């Protein structure tokens, strides 16, 4: 499993995911929004769904508006602690070419004007879900999931189906398969004991001998 310098699994599916999700027609399928406030209201309506709360409880808690405390390195505030507003933030992305999710200043999704539609916003929301509800499962010593790995694609399909409907989900699923994108947890490779390996070797030897005799 190859990782980058940040300890994250290499994002080998990125271009394939981008190609596959075009089937949703970012500018034609789903509602197009104009203002940042409208985008925020839309995403919060998704986050506040009963299904979302049940499926992704950690993300639901992290994206709710609340006041958090952080240590201020400049020492201002009582005992160097300052209170900051937490929860989902939407930035307009003026001058940005791409939409993206970031975590440096809270849970933030940056949305240029072209990206303010359902498929793109759900895509970026799924990055936050993987961070809060999938990444902790790996433990502190394990590599972080790839940005567009099977975990992300699994969540993306689930969210698209719940929000945009089953037809959109099946459309996306078929496209992911067509582009050979993995969206399910890989099966663990079976580890054979030495006795099992000896049995397999013996069977292979018998099969080779039988094949050789048939050819003669």
Could you characterize the architecture of this molecule?
This protein has helices spanning 14-21, 36-47, 50-55, 57-63, 118-134, 150-163, 166-178, 194-215; strands at 66-71, 81-86, 88-91, 100-102, 107-110. It has one domain (14-189). It has 216 residues and is mainly alpha-helical. It has a three-stranded mixed sheet with strand order 3-5-4. Strands 1-2 form a two-stranded antiparallel sheet.
How do the helices and strands line up, and which of them pair or pack?
Blueprint: H1 14-21, H2 36-47, H3 50-55, H4 57-63, E1 66-71, E2 81-86, E3 88-91, E4 100-102, E5 107-110, H5 118-134, H6 150-163, H7 166-178, H8 194-215
Parallel strand pairs: 3-5
Antiparallel strand pairs: 1-2, 4-5
What is the general shape? elongated
Strand order of the largest sheet: 3-5-4
Q: What is the count of β-strands?
A: 5
Number of domains: 1
Structural class: mainly alpha
Notable traits:
two-stranded antiparallel ribbon, three-stranded mixed beta sheet, mainly alpha, 216 residues, 8 helices
């Amino acid at each position: 499993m190859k990782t980058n310098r940040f300890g994250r699994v290499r994002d080998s599916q990125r271009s394939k995911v981008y190609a596959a999700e075009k089937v949703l027609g970012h500018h034609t399928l789903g509602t197009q929004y104009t203002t940042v406030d409208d985008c925020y209201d839309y995403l919060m309506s998704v986050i506040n769904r009963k299904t979302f709360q049940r499926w992704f409880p950690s993300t639901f808690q992290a994206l709710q508006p609340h006041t958090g405390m952080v240590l201020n390195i400049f020492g201002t505030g009582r005992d160097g602690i300052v209170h900051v507003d937490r929860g989902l933030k939407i930035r307009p992305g003026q001058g940005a070419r791409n939409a993206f999710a970031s975590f440096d200043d809270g849970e933030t999704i940056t949305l240029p004007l072209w990206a303010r539609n359902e498929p793109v916003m759900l895509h970026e929301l799924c990055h936050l879900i993987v961070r809060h509800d999938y990444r902790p499962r790996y433990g502190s010593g394990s590599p972080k999931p790839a940005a567009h790995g099977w975990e992300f694609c699994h969540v993306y399909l689930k969210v698209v189906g719940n929000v945009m409907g089953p037809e959109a989900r099946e459309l996306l699923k078929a496209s992911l398969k067509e582009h050979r994108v993995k969206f399910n947890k890989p099966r663990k490779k079976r580890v054979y004991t030495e006795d099992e390996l000896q049995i397999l070797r013996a069977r292979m030897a018998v099969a080779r001998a039988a094949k050789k005799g048939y050819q003669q």
